[in-house]
Amino acid sequence: FQSRIDDCMRQMASLLYQIKGPVNANTRNQVEADSDNMLRPLMDFLDANSLMLFASVCEKTVLKRVLKELWRIVMNSLEKTIILPQGNDTF
């Protein structure tokens, strides 16, 4: 699970670096579309493989714990891959 999320983060990092730049009046309208596009690899993975399965199988209290752990994994991977990358070869 962790490795698949890391792969999604690398895809997101690649997309982010393609669109990274100053926001001006011409690109302001494109920011929302770019944001949705950048999040797509992770959201596709979670929607297709995890969230519906967890919601249908887990009791409410267990689901909350599972989602907290999933959130922790996603945030740690986001931090390592996008926010504080070790070098240029991270994606």
From TrEMBL:
<dbReference type="InterPro" id="IPR010439">
    <property type="entry name" value="MUN_dom"/>
</dbReference>
<dbReference type="InterPro" id="IPR014772">
    <property type="entry name" value="Munc13_dom-2"/>
</dbReference>
<protein>
    <recommendedName>
        <fullName>MHD2 domain-containing protein</fullName>
    </recommendedName>
</protein>
<feature type="domain" description="MHD2">
    <location>
        <begin position="36"/>
        <end position="91"/>
    </location>
</feature>
<dbReference type="InterPro" id="IPR027080">
    <property type="entry name" value="Unc-13"/>
</dbReference>
<dbReference type="Pfam" id="PF06292">
    <property type="entry name" value="MUN"/>
</dbReference>
